[in-house]
Structure formats: C-alpha cells, structure tokens
Design brief:
Layout lengths: L1 E6 L7 H16 L2 E5 L4 H4 L3 E4 L22 H8 L2 H13 L4 E6 L1 H12 L4 E5 L15 H22 L2 E6 L6 H9 L4 E3 L7 H13 L5 E6 L10 H13 L3 E5 L11 H20 L4 E6 L2 E6 H4 L11 H8 L7
Helix pairs in contact: 1-10, 3-5, 6-7, 8-9
The protein binds 6-O-phosphono-beta-D-fructofuranose.
The site of 6-O-phosphono-beta-D-fructofuranose has 11 residues, from loops.
Length: 337
C-alpha cells in the first residue's frame, strides 16, 4: 500500500510530528510506502510529490511548520463542488498515476470539507484534524491548540510587567476568527481580567464600567484579552477598537498588542507532540484496515474516528455553558455580558 500525505490550510505546530507519526509507523510497522504530497491539494492537481524513506522522518518531532508545504488555495474544492465529470476523472487519474492507495489529509475545517468531497467521489481518504483555533467539529481537541495557548499565555504573563508598572489597561488580541478557544483558555491561564470572544455579544460600556470599578477597588492595572473575531465598529481591528473605546470612555492609559502569527509558529508543546503522534498512528491504522472516509479524532479523551460527512461544514465554538467560562464568571472575570 502507498499512503499519500498532505498538509493544507494554515500551518500550525504539530504537523511535522504528525507526518513523522504516520511515516514511521507506516514504513516500520505496516510495511507501507509513503508519498509526501507538496503544497496541500494543489500537489494532487500538479502531481507534485516524492516518495519518502524512513530517514525523511528524522529530526521532525520538535519542528514547527510543515516540511510538505501548505496552501489555502481552493482549486480542488472548487472542482469537486462543481462536479464536472472530466475534472473528477482528472483528480482520480492523478491519484492513480501517483500510485496512491489512500490519501491522509492534515488540515482544519476547509481541508476536512474537501476531504469529505473526495470521499464522496469514491477516493480513499482519511482526515487528520489540525488547527490552533481548536474549532474542528467532532474532535475534543486538535493539535496546535495547546502550543498556541502556551505561547499566548506567556505573552499575557509578560504584559503584566508593563500593566502593573505603568498602571495601564493592556489589550491583547489573540487568533480565533470564528471561535474564541485560544482567547478563553489563554485568557484564563494568564489571569485576564476581561475576555472577549466572537461567540458572546459583548457590551463595551459594561467592559468600561468593570475596568473603572477595578480602579475603585485599588486594582491599578487590567489585562483585556480579545479574540480577533469579535465584532467591532467600521471594520476596525479588535485590539485597536477596544483600546480606543476604553481610553475614550474611561480615561485610563491604554495600550494594545496584536500577537499574530507568533501563536502558530515554532516548536509544538509536548502535549501536541504526543497528540499528533497518536493521531498520525491511528490514521495509519485506519488505512491499514481500509476504513476510509473518516476523520481521526479525540472523543471522550481517547483516539477515535468520525465520518468525514458528519464533520464537513460544521464548527466547534465556545458555548455559553462552557465550564471554564462559567468558572471565570464566578471568579469575577468580565466577558462583557
Ligand atoms: O490557523 C487559523 C488561523 O490562525 C486563524 O485564527 C486566523 O484567522 C487565520 O489562521 C489567519 O491565517 P492566514 O493569514 O494564513 O490565512
């Protein structure tokens, strides 16, 4: 059997350790061949791949990014959605010419949606969830998230220095377009006073009243953690908008920081190394059993799988009854509600 493996969508810590987990167990344990496909689904359209040997997987565990390259290009999805017979046949022919018996697709929501379309067209495919945003439906956690939360928490810890020394309101914007998992977890781990996430409609006046109340209580600084996907006025960037409003409405000295791509760069955390190694191994096992059309997942804390058709098009967001959110509220964290 020859397994093809690709990474698609934004890079994140843990992709290389997944490739290693797949590659080493596929070659050493199952006796399969492994083909690395370059630059996401474009690698299939362009038949851009190389056969990997066991040594190709050495030295990868601790590295960030993806050795296979990645892409957000939607050409494959467009072709599959259009459903033109000639295009579908071209994709199938390419996969046959590359000698692939199964395709392992590492990626986020978009990648899993495309994988589901491939499966629907009879292609042997298995999805492996990755994203720092942790918003993939069907898995309790995706690798990349823990690493991102570690980086963001360290950043919040470091902001405390300026916040407390200068008695300022420090706003930090974290990634998460549609889901506030990073902001909620790093905000709670870093002791944020205010946490604003896209899932909850916040009232900026309530945030400002809360900050002024802190001043009254002799708390001379505040940390405000905001997700990049929160609503703002006139398309303003969240950190910029929230700082402006706080400054104008309270008179507090306010500064903002946008953490950006630092959150998804560099070495995966030990937790993400283990998670990606296990998911990679489990995906290889599914391939060996011929159990295709699934996404590997963590369910009830265990490696498991879920049909790609159930994952496609859904998003896992923070809900109002999230236990960490409720605990935050009980401890006096302001969610702008
Ligand atoms: O990887 C997910 C994510 O980090 C989102 O939080 C963010 O909106 C997006 O990627 C931005 O990535 P890019 O600029 O690569 O499209």
């Amino acid at each position: 059997m020859r397994l093809g493996i690709l990474s698609s969508g934004g890079d994140c810590p843990g992709i290389n350790s997944t490739i290693r987990g797949v590659g080493k167990s596929a070659i050493t344990y199952h006796g399969f061949e492994v083909a690395g496909i370059f630059n996401g689904y474009n690698g299939i359209l362009e038949k851009n791949f190389k056969i990997m040997t066991e040594s190709s997987f050495s030295g990868l565990l601790h590295t960030g990014g993806t050795i296979l390259g990645t892409s957000r290009d939607k050409q494959m999805k467009r072709l599959l959605k259009k459903g033109d017979e000639k295009d579908i046949q071209m994709v199938k022919d390419n996969i046959r010419e590359m000698g692939l018996d199964c395709l392992l697709c590492i990626g986020g929501n978009g990648t899993q949606k495309t994988a589901a379309l491939l499966a629907k067209n009879g292609i042997n495919v298995i999805g492996i969830p990755k994203t720092i945003d942790n918003d993939i439906w069907g898995t309790e956690v995706s690798f990349g998230f823990d690493s991102a939360v570690n980086i963001a928490t360290e950043a919040i810890d470091r902001l405390h220095s300026t916040a407390s020394s200068h008695h300022r309101a420090m706003v930090i914007e974290l990634m998460g377009h549609h889901a506030g998992w990073i902001a909620l977890h790093a905000g709670m781990a870093g002791g944020g006073d205010v946490i604003l996430i896209p899932e909850l409609e916040y009232d900026i006046q309530k945030v400002c009243d809360y900050l002024l109340d802190r001043v009254k209580k002799k708390k001379n600084y505040s940390i405000i953690v905001v997700a990049e996907g929160i609503a703002t006025q006139n398309d303003m960037k969240p950190a910029e908008y929230i700082s402006r409003e706080i400054s104008e409405r309270t008179g507090l000295e306010t500064r903002s920081t946008v953490l950006g791509y630092v959150q998804r760069g560099g070495s995966p955390s030990p937790y993400d190394r283990i998670l990606s190694t296990q998911l990679g191994g489990y995906a290889t096992e599914l391939a060996a059993k011929g159990d295709f059309g699934k996404m590997v997942a963590i369910v009830d804390g265990k490696t498991s799988d879920i049909p790609l058709s159930e994952v496609a098009g859904k998003l896992k967001t923070v809900t109002r009854d999230n236990p960490l959110l409720i605990q935050g509220e009980r401890m006096g964290v302001c969610f702008g509600l």
